[in-house]
Amino acid sequence: MNVPGPEVPPFSHQPVLLHEVVTALQPKAHGRYLDGTLGGGGHAEAILEAGSPGGFLYGCDRDPAALRAAGDRLGRFGGRTEIHHGDFSGADQWITPGSLDGILFDLGVSSHQLDTADRGFSFQQDGPLDMRMDPSGGGPTAADLVNTLPAGELADLFWSLGDERHSRRIAQALVEDRRNRPFTTTGQLAASIERVCPRRGSPTHPATRCFQALRIATNGELASVREGLERAFPLLTPGGRLAVISFHSLEDRIVKEFMRREARDYDYEGPVDHPHLRTPRPPRGRELARKGIVASDAELAANPRARSARLRVLERLPEP
Ligand SMILES: C[S@@+](CC[C@H](N)C(=O)[O-])C[C@H]1O[C@@H](n2cnc3c(N)ncnc32)[C@H](O)[C@@H]1O
User: Fold this and answer.
1) Are residues 227 and 272 in the same domain?
2) N or C: which end of the chain has fewer CB within 10 A?
3) pLDDT tens, 16-54?
4) Does residue 254 share a domain with residue 227?
5) CA-wise closest residue to 255 among 242, 237, 240, 271
6) Is the CB of 66 under 6 A from ligand 1?
7) C-alpha separations of 68 from 5, 54, 220 in Å
8) Which tens digit of pLDDT belongs to each residue from 232-257?
């Protein structure tokens, strides 16, 4: 496969909940797996190692730079991998339904994406205000959103995707600032937000929540997760497992609700689950560890990024 894009600096990303993912997926020597968020290939490598000698892994990522790094790391497995560029919600276009023994989605961004100033994900380093996981895809950048959305929409975005309680004040200030000079860099945006919400000794940068919200919006992350879960679960064979790691409550809620729904033995009409609106049906999945799995103290000490990670696992049940 030919992946477009410039050379990347050395890739660094420490996979979270690695042991827990391998335990959940239980890779087999002739199993078939999908890692929909390859990143640097750390989880993928562990799945392939545990599934030696014959286990096969499809890998996918929206980010061409991640695919190059993962491709290098997984090269030693030869014909046991097939790597695709794109959103994991499209995996059903190249994988046969009912053919997989395990799927992993390790959501969000990699440390490498955050640490590469040019990608524009971080307020810690100045870079172009981009934030697209797939810069080759042509969609709107974070700068496009900040420079064009009306103040009300910008405030809603900061509130709903970042839980930013000063969302209105910040949005109003950004709209005024952009009249003089459109936003082009992460540093410029972080400085504008800090002017409205001074740090006052807080360890968290005041732009943290707005940056998270912009990243989620720029990449349509929540819609991808919703669609990805719906379309990936039927790719599993009965007994196959879907493992999803999320890093914030918005993602985790989508994953939890999806898994709860698949594990139920009924559907219901309308938005509210009321006993007399229920239609019985066999459960399609079985949840493992209903509350989700979080990092051990040892992992937290070694990798602070694991702090907000939660792994949920759903096993596909056979159709009766
Ligand atoms: C947390 S990192 C994954 C790290 C990886 N598990 C490892 O061991 O190195 C998340 C990766 O998923 C990718 N990603 C996020 N959402 C995606 C989606 N909807 N489709 C495909 N890739 C996605 C990001 O580009 C990023 O490289």
Assistant:
1) yes
2) C
3) 999 999 999 999 999 999 999 999 999 999 999 999 999
4) yes
5) 242
6) yes
7) 9, 23, 23
8) 999 999 999 999 999 999 999 999 99
Helix orientation angle between 186-196 and 208-218, rounded to the nearest 10 degrees: 130
pTM assigned to the model: 0.94
Q: How far apart are CA 211 and CA 214, in angstroms?
A: 5
Place of tokens 């066999």: 282
108 lines ligand 1 (CB under 6 A): yes
Cβ 186 under 6 angstroms from ligand 1: no
The CB of 224 under 6 Å from ligand 1? The reply is yes
Torsion of the alpha carbons at 173, 174, 177 and 180, rounded to the nearest 10: -140
Residue 108 lies inside a defined structural domain of this protein: yes
Would the CA dihedral through 13, 16, 22, 24 be positive or negative? negative
Residue 284 structure tokens:
């399609």
- For the segment 153-163, what is each residue's pLDDT rounded down to a tens digit? 999 999 999 99
61 CA closest ligand 1 atom index: 22
| Window from 89-103, 263-277, 285-299 with minimum mean pLDDT | 263-277
Domain holding 59, by residue range, is 18-112+222-316
Residue 9 pLDDT level (bands cut at 50, 70, 90)? low
- With beta carbons less than 8 A apart as the criterion, state whether 16 and 306 touch: yes
